[in-house]
Each structure stands twice: as structure tokens, then as C-alpha cells.
Amino acid sequence: MMEIIMGEFQTATVIMVSHRLGVVVDMFNRVLIMDKGQLVEDGAPRTLAKTDGSWFAQLLKSAKEH
After folding, report:
1. Which of 5, 24, 42, 50 has its CB surrounded by the most CB atoms within 10 Å?
2. What is the per-residue pLDDT across 14-39, written as a single tens digit (0 to 9) for each?
3. Is 17 exposed, middle or buried (CB count within 10 Å of its CB: 0-12, 13-18, 19+)?
4. E-assigned strands of 1-66?
């Protein structure tokens, strides 16, 4: 399904809610992290994944542990 989304919507903005963070890192160029309805982080997933203390890095680490 991701191949279809990425192929058909190359020039469009795609908003996706996902708990599969590996997909987010591999397929998207921007991620917004929300907590309790508030935006807490915004940036490139690969950059945020490498940023110590970022919400996204912590979520990735937690997902890999489960």
C-alpha cells in the first residue's frame, strides 16, 4: 500500500497517522509529533532520530524495544 501512496501522491502532501515509526523514517520527509493535542516536535525524521533527547528518537527507541 505504501508504494501506491508514494507513487500516486508524489506531488501532494500526505498526512498519515502511524505507530510504525520505521515506515515514517523510510518514507516521509517531515514528521510532526503531538502530545496531548499539542505539537511538541517538527522536523525531518532522519534528523530527529539522531537528535539526543528528541521525542521522535525516544519513540523510535521504545518501539524497537517492544
Report:
1. 24
2. 888 888 888 888 888 899 999 999 99
3. exposed
4. 31-35, 38-43
